[in-house]
Design a protein that fits this description.
Blueprint lengths: L5 E2 L4 E2 L10 H9 L8 E5 L5 H9 L4 E6 L2 H13 L6 E5 L2 H8 L5 E6 L13 H7 L6 H11 E12 L3 H10 L3 E11 L4 E9 L6 E10 L2 E2 L1 H7 L7
Parallel strand pairs: 3-4, 3-6, 4-5, 6-7, 8-10
Antiparallel strand pairs: 1-2, 7-9, 8-9, 10-11
Helix pairs in contact: 1-2, 4-6
Keywords: Cytoplasm, Methyltransferase, S-adenosyl-L-methionine, Transferase, tRNA processing
Protein name: tRNA1(Val) (adenine(37)-N6)-methyltransferase
Main location: cytoplasm
Length: about 240
């Protein structure tokens, strides 16, 4: 994707200073995230451009949407994107590492929804850019650290939503259970009908309840999107 700004229906994202550009994963997660309990407080971990926080501001009346970003350039860009939007008064970005933030916030009011499109990498992935690597490589925020922090910041009745490579799903669910988090809903994503499952969208809470599972297929053929995908993202993309 180019460096130029990305125009959504109700907001615009500048991304020239961000290592991680807008991609399908973030849009999927922001559109899929569960708002059935109408959370008043939301935390987006590793916000990057601010995309998911902005999508949730569009979808929900939550009074407090906090976003966290460790990379200075991305943090500054997210702040700008928040300020340019119509929801600037409810969006707050913090420049900090997740462990520091957890340390500082764990005794404060808990978040009713925590969301993260976490940094992960493909084994064959190398990049010239150090900041892109930092954004992409799981070493920057191991799953265990993410889950431990979430377990400390999440409201007892809250939900944690994330998107990860499908091959990590079993491992991630088992790690989550060590922190008292259990899957409530899983949507597995395929590019098209015949391709392998690539991503897992996961919703966790502190209760053990009946797991809901389904699949989402994005395309019928190149740039010909399925009705299910269009229905999910129609409020955001200009041309769909």
């Amino acid at each position: 994707m180019s460096e130029k700004a990305f125009q959504f229906k109700e907001f615009k994202i500048e991304q020239d200073r961000c290592a991680m550009k807008i991609g399908t994963d973030g849009v999927l997660l922001g559109a899929w995230a569960s708002l059935e309990h109408q959370p008043d407080s939301i935390l987006d971990i590793g916000t990057g451009t601010g995309l998911i926080a902005l999508m949730l501001a569009q979808r929900s009346p939550a009074l407090l949407i906090d976003a966290l970003e460790i990379d200075e350039d991305a943090y500054e860009q997210a702040v700008d994107n928040f300020e340019q939007s119509q929801w600037g008064d409810r969006l707050f970005c913090y420049h900090a590492a997740f462990d520091e933030y957890v340390e500082e916030m764990q005794d404060e009011d808990k978040y009713e929804l925590i969301i993260s499109n976490p940094p992960f990498y493909a084994e064959d992935y190398t990049s010239e850019s150090a900041s892109r690597n930092k954004a992409r490589f799981a070493e920057a925020l191991p799953f265990s650290e993410l889950l431990e922090g979430v377990s400390k910041l999440l409201h007892p009745d809250g939900e944690f939503n994330t998107i990860i490579p499908h091959k990590e799903e079993t491992n991630f669910i088992s790690l989550a259970s060590e922190f008292g988090l259990f899957p409530k809903k899983i949507t597995r994503v395929r590019g098209n009908e015949t391709s392998a499952i690539k991503r897992s969208l996961l919703s966790f809470n502190f209760k053990k309840e009946q797991l809901k599972e389904n699949e989402l297929i994005i395309e019928i053929s190149r740039h010909n999107y399925t009705d299910a995908y269009k229905k999910l993202v129609k409020d955001f993309y200009l041309k769909l």
